[in-house]
Amino acid sequence: MNVWQFARDSVQAPLAGGRLLLDPQHPTDGIAIAGADGQRRQLLTIDCQPPHQFQLEELFARQQDLVVRYRQSSTDACAVEFDWRMVNDEQLVPPSAGAIEWRISIQTTLLDSSPAILCPLAADVQWNRIRLGDLLPAPGDGLEAGVVPLDAEVMWLGQVGPVAVAIMVGPNDLAQIAAGATEADLRPVTLRVFGQFLEKGVIRWARMRLYLYPTLPSREQLGAAYLALAHSPLPLTA
Question: Are 17 and 29 spatial neighbours (Cβ–Cβ below 8 Å)?
Answer without folding.
Answer: no
